[in-house]
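Standup notes
- DV: blocked on the single-chain target, sequence here:
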Amino acid sequence: MIRKLEEEEEEQEGYPKYLTGTCNQLEKIWLFVAVTYLFQGVTYSEELERMKRAVDPEAFMSINELITYQGYPSEEYEVMTEDGYAITINRIPYGTQNQGSPASRPVVFLQHGLFGDASNWVINLPHNSLGFLLADAGFDVWMGNSRGNRWSRKHQKYSIDQDEFWAFSFDEMAKYDLPAAINFILEKTGQEKLYYIGYSQGTTIAFIAFSTMPELAQKIKLYFALAPVAAIKYAKGPATKLLYLPGKILRNRIDVYIAQTSAGTSVQNIVHWSQEARSGKFQAYDWGSSKKNMEKYQQTIPPLYNVEEMMVPTAVWTGGRDLLADPKDATILLSKIKKLIYHKKIPEWAHLDFIWGLDAPLHVYNEIIDLMQKFLPVNQSAGGDEPVTVAEDRRKAAKAGSEIIRYHGYPSEEYEVTTEDGYILAVYRIPAGRNDRNTGQRPAVFLQHAFLGDATHWISNLPNNSLGFVLADAGFDVWLGNSRGNTWSLKHKTLKPCQKEFWQFSFDEMGKYDIPAELNFIMNKTGQKNVYYIGHSEGSTAGFIAFCTYPELAKQVKVFFALGPVTACPHATSPLVKITNLPKPLLKSRVDMYVGHSPAGTSVQDIFHWQQLAHTDQFQAYDYGSKENMKKYNQTAPPVYKIEEIKIPTAVWSGGQDTFADPEDMARLLPRITNLIYHENFPAWGHLDFIWGLDATEKMYLKIIELLKKYF
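- DV (later): unblocked, structure below
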């Protein structure tokens, strides 16, 4: 094939113009090809048998064998593409400890990088391989093999000895391989959507497919892009330097890595990457002449791929030392992803750390699983009406709020409250203290949890460290809310969680519908005319919205206690992950309790609303775009919430290390609170110290009780 490339270079006609360029330019291409064949030579040399005796046996196993060798179930399928290639797909239907029907498991599809194959995901030991980790976490794992790699070298018409077989690049992988694989998997599992994880070139083909085929994009719940590559204007030495080994690598696995890589590709694919590096553009393959491009694309130059048109929720991980997915290129790419829900840069990582690094589970894999589980309640159309999902497993494993309350010896009541727009919310009540026999009327206090939380946030610690229990023992009638869409509020009068319409809400609706419904229910139930309101994080956000929108409701709130309040948040950093930095004084034995109940779920729209607030620097309603805004709000821009109009006595607590309710944002919020009666900042506190910190009772809860009694 190298010889053929030389011949075509001499012809010039119909081949990329840069092949007639300088020696330095050509050397880069030769180096690219040489690296490929060097690796294949290691795998297929004449001394293969001698090597087998000297290295790890996994170095010479098929993907199916690699999976079963580690004790996991394995299935293998051949999928036919529209243009006749037979590509192999490997499946791990369940983990070693969670056997069961694969039909009940969320589906994840993993696509390898340049020169790779499905073994990229199972090549490390099980606790360090993403494929195995996902299977053990309860997912149905599928792994693709791009055309031309060692496991996908069949075609309906051509053999691998024919030039026509190798006439492809990542263009065709995106246009044919990816749709064929995804549609096959969904048909086989009976699901409507799946999660997609791509690495390197696996992200490239996804950006192409999901931006050019909207129907395919709608079948993706979440897109996880590891070391994403589109335009590579700043990439350095893509042929060899990308192969630098991770700093943290299992040395006795190197022979397995080398033998399983490279799995092969076409010269045309390599040339396409070289075109990308030279042009700095993310575009289709350049056939080298206006005539040929016109035949292929109906235009004289290759069409550009518009990542901006991709509407799939996307999470991205990048490396600071990645010489293929260069940080500068990554910055440009990130700005084009319209639905970017998360990005993390790992400064010391290079390109191969994402699949071979020993610290990959810590830095990336565990976060992927966490994000998948957070989004499971959102996208439950993936299993029809089938409720057996990771989210449901969590619900069954976790105790309901009423059970936790009774477990600690407190009286417990549970109610369902229906909102004006039809959502049915679970509300828990602790009507008295643990040892209190007084059944008389007590002042009612309503507590509203944070983003991705539920009512258990207030009772997760032991009684002397849980605000819900502390208030009950102090003589208050304690009510705990659950926002729509969380684990305990998944009912609606006419909609089901498997319907898209169920999830069309953000904290706008929580403030406009949930809070009024809950407060009015409590006042009707207790016969009281006023309540106290305590909100943490998004619970305070919903409070601000409710009380500035409904002045009559605000008059019924005695005092508003805002813990880590969030409104406009331009200085917040990574709200999906960094807010969960655990408090320093933490009851270690309760960590399983915290994790068992968090996150409790929310909607994608709620997450996007938070992202909007981070970018607009305004505390405003959800932005649907000017046309839809006009329908919703009778104006092209979303209305701004006027906190200044709230007259409720308000007490605020903030944290100096809070990365969601950032101190800079807090400094701008406080002057807007017209009736601020108290504020205290704890320099060492993060966002979760308000509910889980061991020093929360001493530093904050006792002060809350003091203020409650003062304003009784």
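- Follow-up: The first strand starts at residue 75 and ends at 80.
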